[in-house]
Amino acid sequence: MEKGSFLIAGDPSNPEGCVYVELRGLRGYIGLLSVDPGRQKTGLGSLLMKAAEAHCARAGCKFVDLQIVNLRQELPSFYRRRGYVEQGTAPFPAEVTTRMPCHFIKMSKPLL
Predict the structure, then answer these.
(1) Cα–Cα distance measured from residue 66 to residue 111, given in angstroms and rounded to the nearest whole number
(2) Deepest in the core among 11, 42, 49, 69, taking most CB within 10 A?
(3) How many CB atoms lie within 10 A of CB 100?
């Protein structure tokens, strides 16, 4: 998180949502999308994703990447509806203890 920045929706002292954005040359990385439970299903998550993608595009990125934990079964369809395509998997960090076995699903999309 030292290489990127957070986009915050709402008052910074009482944020309603945020997303992490990192510029990696021609590829942007988006992660840690979070929306206050009271604001979920209002379009705020989509708005934050659009803002993050626009930030990457303005910086010259041609693609944007993300990764999600496979245990969050609702997430692949959320990102597919926004144009992301699964690109494979990656192992969860070995040094992180989890209650259940898990891995990352890697997704990306081109920026137009």
Answers:
(1) 13
(2) 49
(3) 7
Cα dist from 27 to 13, 24, 41, 65, 96, whole Å: 31, 5, 28, 7, 26
Tell me: the pLDDT tens digits for 7-58? 999 988 999 999 999 999 999 999 999 999 999 999 999 999 999 999 999 9
C-alpha count within 13 angstroms, C-beta hemisphere, residue 17:
21
Which two structure tokens, joined as six digits, stand for 39?
A: 């604001």
Which CATH number is 5-110's, of 2.60.40.790, 3.40.630.30, 2.40.30.10, 3.90.650.10?
A: 3.40.630.30
